[in-house]
Design brief:
Layout (H helix, E strand, L loop, with lengths): L12 H13 L12 E6 L5 H12 L3 E5 L1 H4 L3 E2 L12 E2 H11 L2 E5 L7 H6 L1 H9 L4 E3 L7 H14 L6 E6 L9 H10 L5 E5 L8 H4 L3 E3 L2 H5 L4 E5 L21 H4 L6 E3 L12 H5 L5 H24 L1
Parallel strand pairs: 1-2, 1-5, 3-4, 5-6, 7-8, 7-10, 8-9, 10-11
Helix pairs in contact: 1-7, 1-13, 2-13, 4-6, 7-8, 7-13
Bound molecules: N~2~-(3-carboxypropanoyl)-L-ornithine (SUO) and phosphoric acid mono(formamide)ester.
N~2~-(3-carboxypropanoyl)-L-ornithine binds next to α8.
Length: 317
């Protein structure tokens, strides 16, 4: 594997899920691989899980880890080509990425959607600029439109918990007062579509994800319809793709409650976290035995460890 920015960088999803489970079973088996290699983790936005799980995974593989909160610690970066830099941004990505590539063997980047202009966000300028100018492999730690480390951890978790070959997996929108990115929902849909699981997306009218991402997935505008017979409920808020970045509704009837979970086939509850208790999901759901959110977050280590391992093996040849 050269980069891990989106699904196009992955040759075999099933193999990668297996590799993640192998990392979990034997975390230190590849400690030699990262010897004298450095990974730089760059955060344009806040993080708890991604930051710590990626650092831990890299350390399990014997790497040195450098972390920078680009958003607050570094120079403001310009991504546009050909501009006269006479405003607030002091450094261009062309130099910044190339310089970081001198210090790091792998660079991992978090840069959320700005939710102002759909075309701008879906161009993935930040991650693609790093790919273009850094000269080293790039890992996506949640970009404007994708969160592949999360989706790989989600598939690992479903693999661990499924009780039938082809479970029914539901991605459901849940209410939030802030406009949030589509990245987690987009990615989850794309990755689940790579499996042979039954997949349904439930969201209010106006919240359909990009047609290029949800492809032929079944989309319903009723949570009750989607939840019937479900084995996994994956909740997430996202702002509208159609009316880009807008909060069109905060309808509390879309909150995940024990009554809704009772419509399912004893489904496990999943969420990428952080989650706002009481707003998106009832406390009773998050505290229930069927909640898989902590196991899911734990699996973030093994998903990114599988990715870093494959990239390190690619560097060696
Ligand atoms: N990495 C996990 C999700 C990150 C982000 N959530 C948030 O920003 C939640 C913030 C809040 O609830 O205030 C998102 O939706 O993409
Ligand atoms: N799920 C996730 O990516 O969490 P953080 O935003 O805390 O890294």
């Amino acid at each position: 594997m050269k980069h891990f920015i989106n699904l196009n960088d992955v040759s075999d999803v099933t193999e990668l899920v297996k590799l993640g489970l192998e990392q979990k079973a034997n975390p230190f088996a590849n400690k030699h691989l990262g010897l004298n290699k450095t990974i730089g983790l760059l955060f344009f936005n806040s993080s708890l899980r991604t930051r710590i799980s990626t650092q831990k995974a890299a350390m399990n593989l014997g790497m040195n880890v450098i972390v920078m909160n680009v958003g607050s610690d570094s120079w403001q970066l310009e991504f546009e080509d050909g501009v006269i830099m006479d405003q607030g941004k002091a450094e261009h990505i062309k130099e910044a990425a190339a310089v970081l590539g001198q210090y790091c063997d792998i660079i991992a980047v978090r840069a959320f959607a700005e939710l102002k202009d759909r075309n701008d966000d879906y161009k993935e300028t930040v991650l693609e600029s790093f790919r273009k100018y850094a000269g080293v492999p790039i890992i996506n730690l949640e970009s404007a439109t994708r969160h592949p480390c999360q989706s790989l951890a989600d598939l690992i978790t479903i693999e661990e918990l499924k009780t039938k070959e082809k479970p029914k997996v539901v991605l459901t929108w849940a209410p939030h007062f802030k406009p949030l990115p589509q990245a987690v929902g987009n990615s989850f849909a794309e990755w689940v579509l790579m499996t042979d699981y039954e997949f349904v997306i439930a969201n209010p009218e106006g919240y359909d994800l990009s047609p290029e991402i949800r492809k032929n997935a079944k989309v319903v505008h009723s949570q009750e319809e989607a939840f019937a017979g479900a084995d996994f409920i994956y909740a997430k808020n996202w702002s509208s793709y159609e009316q880009y970045g807008q909060v069109l509704t905060q309808d509390p009837s879309w909150k995940i409650t024990p009554e809704k979970m009772a419509l399912t086939n004893n489904a496990k509850f999943m969420h990428c976290l952080p989650v706002r208790r009481g707003l998106k999901v009832s406390d009773e759901v998050l505290d229930a035995d069927y909640s898989a959110v902590i196991q899911q977050a734990g699996n973030r280590v093994w998903s990114v460890q599988a990715v870093i391992k494959q990239i390190l093996e690619g560097l060696a040849v």
